[in-house]
Write a structure and sequence with these properties.
The protein has about 600 residues and is of the alpha+beta class. Among the domains are: about 45 residues; about 40 residues, no CATH class; about 160 residues, Nucleotidyltransferase, domain 5 (2-Layer Sandwich); about 120 residues, no CATH class. It is built from 28 helices and ten strands. The N terminus is likely disordered. Pfam families: Dimer_Tnp_hAT. InterPro entries: HATC_C_dom, RNaseH-like_sf.
């Protein structure tokens, strides 16, 4: 190579001639670079990557570039990324950069906060609504004055300063009353209406006058829910007149207002023995029977027992009852007399029990009074012997004369023996559990026990023998065509026969409702084994056996509407009773009451606009 350069440098002509090619070759050399550039340019245009829309499914932060189709826009970094050469790889490279990673982390945290904060806010709002509803339940359950709501929310906030919920609770007296009426009350009625529309039920009613002389009619329904029989408050209606037609109209209007098809599902009716309720010619029961031919009507068993005891006691001398009242009235009017009587009890080593007051209307309450008089009989004679000498009052002399009469104590001993039979029956049928199946056997047992006191046993046995022949003339019997049997009577009979064989070896000491709940849970082939029989039995258990459940409602009303709260409106009293009904349906109290979603939806500004 060195020798070659030396030769060239020594021959300048050759060098110049070699450096100046001919025109043809020069033109050929000049044309080829331009053509090559055009070819390279066309090749580059063919392979330049454009933006692809479906990349956004993989890269959520990606969108179409603002500078053209060969760019992709990063929403995290707010920059355009050139993708013409590297395509999707350019996007991945950008995603791995430190700046993008940092920006993406910050935005993700902000998004999480934005999504979570509304959830926390909603949860807090729900908790506040629940707190306000449960406060209303607390006040209603314990019959508290509504004015405590002026201080209760602030008091709770004061003793729980770290609670954000307590700070947000705003529940005044007005708001609480509207929650009772238009949230809890309406929720209860909706549930009761659903129950009565889907199940057979009985109606128990009674009328009373409260402390403000307002006459009200109370309606209680006896219905089965989840194979358990409940006595549930239904309505409390103000009535101007307490005649049969007015009470009947009030009952029907209450059912109609709540869209209850009572003619189809109402199977039983019970009330006390008053003429307006149970009269033979014109009463609430006769009017209901005219509407529902197959209605089962029962006078309150407890009232019947009371009347039986009252009629029997009319045969006793009036001095016995007068003695009980006179002794109580003599002692109660003076603290000195009570102290002296207590000293004598201590001296004679008797229990320091007070003398009881006999009720003006309940003869059955006389049993406890009689037992107390017999228990303290010797102390009473000693006390009134001293009182006659010291005070010389005619009342004390009359009491002492009666106490020393042996016939008086004889009558008291007779009452102590006889009255407990009626007390036992009365307590049994005041029970909230189903007792209709015990009505006949329990009454029969008491009747036989009393008859055995003065009637020969062979006569009693003959009288009670169910196998004895009844000589009934043909005209006393119904035609076969007139005898109605239910459509599914054969199905019920077959289920009953199967059940006898199924449970004959099982333990037979269960409560009646518990037993039939067990039967209802029996399945054959993933289906209820005895559906018709269970339905029949729980319909029978829904029959009433007394009106004690209505009297319990009136007792609750008396606890609410007192002398200092006698202006309480009927609608508010009814709402409080409905709230207590919700507690019974949930089998709960104010501490574990379950607030439903529907209740929360009702607790809004619209509840103030609902008419009473």
């Amino acid at each position: 190579m060195k020798r070659f350069f030396e030769v060239v440098s020594k021959d300048p002509q050759r060098a110049s001639s070699s450096s100046e090619p001919d025109s043809e070759s020069t033109e050929g050399i000049n044309e080829s670079p331009e053509k090559n550039k055009e070819c390279e340019k066309s090749k580059k245009q063919n392979y330049e990557q454009k933006y692809v829309k479906y990349w956004e499914s993989e890269f959520k932060w990606l969108s179409e570039g603002t500078k053209g189709c060969h760019y992709a826009f990063c929403k995290v970094c707010s920059v355009d990324v050139y993708i013409g050469k590297m395509g999707k790889s350019a996007i991945k490279s950008h995603a791995n950069t430190q700046i993008h990673t940092k920006n993406a982390g910050t935005i993700s945290l902000n998004l999480v906060q934005q999504n979570i904060e509304p959830l926390f806010s909603l949860a807090s709002k729900t908790a506040v609504i629940d707190a306000e509803i449960m406060m209303a339940v607390f006040v209603a359950e314990h019959n508290l004055a509504f004015q405590i709501m002026g201080h209760l929310p602030q008091f709770v906030n004061k003793i729980t300063p770290d609670s954000n919920i307590a700070k947000k609770v705003k529940c005044s007296r007005t708001k609480m009353v509207n929650i009772l009426r238009n949230v809890l009350g309406i929720s209860y009625i909706e549930e009761i209406v659903d129950l009565l529309s889907a199940n057979k039920f009985s109606l128990i009613i009674d009328e009373s006058t409260d402390i403000s002389l307002v006459k009200t009619l109370c309606l209680v329904v006896r219905v089965c829910k989840n194979f358990k029989v409940h006595d549930l408050f239904f309505d409390l209606i103000e009535v101007e007149s307490a005649d049969a037609s007015s009470l009947f109209s009030a009952v029907i209007n209450s059912f109609t207002k709540n869209n209850i098809m009572y003619k189809q599902n109402m199977i039983g009716f019970a009330a006390d023995g008053a003429n307006i309720m149970m009269g033979r010619n014109h009463s609430v029961s006769t009017l209901l029977k005219a509407d529902i031919n197959d209605l089962f009507v029962l006078k309150c068993v407890c009232h019947s027992f009371h009347l039986s005891a009252s009629y029997a006691c009319e045969k006793l001398p009036g001095e016995v009852e007068d003695l009980a009242r006179n002794i109580f009235n003599y002692l109660k009017s003076s603290s000195k007399r009570l102290k002296d009587f207590s000293s004598l009890q201590y001296f004679f080593e008797f229990k320091a029990n007070k003398i009881l007051h006999p009720s003006q209307t309940r003869w059955l309450s006389l049993s406890a009074v009689v037992s107390r008089l017999i228990e303290q009989y010797d102390v009473l004679i000693a006390y009134f012997s001293i009182a006659v000498k010291e005070e010389n009052l005619q009342t004390a002399k009359n009491i002492l004369t009666s106490l020393k009469d042996p016939i008086t104590k004889l009558y008291l001993l007779f009452l102590e023996f006889a009255l407990p039979f009626f007390i036992k029956l009365n307590k049994l049928f005041q029970s909230e559990s189903s007792q209709i199946h015990k009505l006949h056997s329990s009454v029969k047992e008491i009747v036989v026990t009393l008859l055995e006191c003065f009637v020969r046993k062979d006569y009693i046995t003959m009288f009670l023998d169910s196998t004895s022949e009844f000589n009934l003339p043909p005209e006393c019997l119904l035609d076969l065509e007139s005898i109605y049997l239910a459509d599914n009577i054969q199905e019920i009979d077959s289920e009953y026969r199967t059940l006898i064989n199924f449970v004959k070896d099982k333990e037979q000491i269960l409560d009646i409702e518990e037993f039939w709940r067990m039967v209802a849970r029996i399945e054959i082939g993933n289906e209820q084994a005895f559906p018709n029989l269970v339905k029949l039995v729980f319909a029978i258990l829904s029959f009433p056996h007394s009106s004690a459940n209505v009297e319990r409602v009136f007792s609750q009303v008396n606890l609410m509407k007192t002398k200092i709260r006698k202006r309480l409106e009927n609608a508010t009293i009814k709402a409080s009773l409905q709230t207590k009904g919700l507690l019974e349906l949930q089998n709960s109290d104010c501490t574990n009451f379950k607030v439903t979603t529907e209740m929360r939806k009702k607790c809004n500004k619209a509840m103030y606009d609902i008419p009473k």
